[in-house]
Amino acid sequence: MIFALASLGLAFANPVQIGGYVRMMTRPDLQGGSGKLGHWNLYGRLLNESPYGALDLHYDLVEKSANKNPWAVLHFRAEGPLFGPESVSNWNISQVHVTSGNLTGSGHTWKIGSLEEYFGDLSLYDMRPGQIFNDTVGASLRIDYPNAALILGAGDAGLNIRRGSYNAIPSAGFSFRLRPIKSIEVGIAGQYRYEPGVRGNQNAPYMIPEINYSDIIRGEVYENWRKENIGSALEFPDPILTDAQSGELIGYFGFGGFGPVVWNNTYVNFSLAHPLGPLTENTEMGELTIHRTNFTDERYRLFVGNEAQLRLNSWNDATWAALYSKSWDQDNVISPSDDVRTMASSVLRIQSYVGQHIHLIAETSIAYEKSDNGNRFREHYDSIFQNTAGIPDDRGFESGDTDTRITWQGKGGVVLNPSGKGIFSRPSIRFLYGVQHSNENNAFGNAFVESINQYNAFGNVEQHWHHILSMETEAWF
Amino acid sequence: MVLVWLQLIACMAHSTTHLKRSQAVEFSIVLTAENSQKGETLTLPSELKNEISNRLKSHLINGTHLSPPPKGFSEFQNAEKRAQLISNPNRLTIDFKTEYYSQIAGRFRWVVHTTILLQEKDQLTVERLSIPVFHKFGHQQDVASIKSAMPKVLNEVSDMVNEHIKGSQK
């Protein structure tokens, strides 16, 4: 259906255009995996992503004409996973906005609706550290200068962050990109969100006094409070209204157009994640809401990423990418989590042109992931699952027997590119083989039973190598 | 061996026929380009002009670029009216209008709306194409979009020339 709509997009010059993106693949996994070589795209997106699609409608509300007259365009985008039981239900409307130009001056573009913007991406990882406003619905003004572009925006991030439990989160930000000379580009961007406490609004940010972090993780807040307050079970403390804030600051540097360097992007992103909404616990009094703003308001991350696209010669292109990320949570000093870890990774891809449309591709990656709050990964099928300082403890916060995961992947195969040469030329039809080694056991999405309980009827398996074959396609349209 | 075979198949599938005229003929060419959102005229690099000339040469057509365009050319948007301002009855005009579409899945999507007019004596053909192109980097904008769209534009020009050659042989 997507391809049919895409062909319509080519046929309609105006006022309707259809654009989008699709990646589809089949990877029968005979080692019990779910079809991906490794857990995620820290090891390179190739063979580590699942089917996905996006469909974007562009409608000219006021057609562009000569003489710098005002124009307006409506964009409506839906996207989500393809295939699988959740593919339809997980599609969502990700962007709706009206863009209008030449209203207040030549080179001025107003956008009302979803405001997402980014400098570019780290293609090999499919990551966008230069992105702002991916959660904000509001208004932005883009001013284009001959060698620069400024975007100023403000709106509400509450619709995307809180969703069904909406509370207003005013958000404002900016992006400035400057190209002083042809071969250099610099950029800076930032976004700030502030969620005020609104008395009486149950979706506002709250904190609960007299509870501790470990009880929240274990889901034992009420149980332990009751033990410590015998006889006053009905006097569980009321939530205290507070406020919340978050934001990010982004730096970007790009250069290229000389020697073998087509272009090199470097991104630095420092962020403070927005505090999380409440959890619920089931008690004999019914469902109890546990507010945790004060326990999730100090989650910081520093991310540095680089990607270089290189033209080695007329028959070989290469892209090299690397990233470093450090996340820390000043509230959580006891439990492994995505917010308390260090990561580093590097990916190298080479594409060789056997002919205009037949290419060979090879990619390798090495990644290091360290949990900074104790063990998180299991190296063996019969290793300690939950522990404290290496001792089995089913009330321990750690999971696994090591705090470090090191993953290597190698991938290669044949690429058929109807549109010709280019390492990022699409559409692509790919026939690939991939191999992974990890110190973690079964380091890929799977349906294995991890329990070492004697009543585990399925047994366990130890495997650190993972092989996969893939037939896939990827296209922008 | 398999790769060589695949390559041969691919080349056969993608090659565009370039019919040759029985004798060389002179054409006047006018290329125009603008960013349709900003209403700004774009300067096309000479390599793009050369690509057009070379493609015409493969049909035994000698193209001469008129630069700047004939007086009054920019006052009309209609391709036929523009063509009438060219004194040579053998004309090729190509008008590019670039439009930034959106960022999609990490790429910058642009659209190059292209109007191609080919006229020689009593034969007139006008084709309009909207060609989506995708850039990896934000600094790739109008001219980069036209460069990316050129293979499709050149193939369309060849198809139009082929039709004219076939028409003149009837």
Question: How would you describe this protein?
Answer:
The complex is a heterodimer of chains A (477) and B (170). By secondary structure, chain A is mostly beta strands. Helix content of chain A is 6%, strand content 49%. In chain A, a hairpin with a 4-residue loop joins β20 and β21 (358-371). Chain A starts with a helix and ends with a strand. The model of chain A is unreliable at 1-12 (pLDDT under 50). In chain B, strands 1, 2, 3, 4, 5 and 6 form a six-stranded mixed sheet that branches. The longest helix of chain B has 28 residues, at 142-169. In chain B, α2 packs parallel to α4. Chain B has helices spanning 2-14, 46-57, 79-83, 142-169, and strands spanning 25-35, 40-41, 61-65, 90-104, 107-120, 123-135. With 170 residues, chain B is of the alpha/beta class. At the A-B interface, β1, β2, β3 and β6 of A face α1, β4, β5 and β6 of B.
- Kindly name the structural category of chain B: alpha/beta
User: Strand share of the residues of chain A?
Assistant: over 45%
Largest pleated sheet of chain B: 6 strands, mixed
Structural class of chain A: mainly beta
Broad shape of chain A? globular
Helix percent of chain B reads 25-40%
Q: What is the CA–CA distance across the termini of chain B?
A: 43 Å
Low-confidence stretches of chain B: none
The residue fraction in helices of chain A comes out at: under 10%
The fraction of residues in strands of chain B falls at 35-45%
Q: Mean of the pLDDT scores of chain B?
A: 89
Task: Name the overall outline of chain B.
Answer: globular
Number of helices of chain A: 4
Q: State the end-to-end distance of chain A.
A: 13 Å
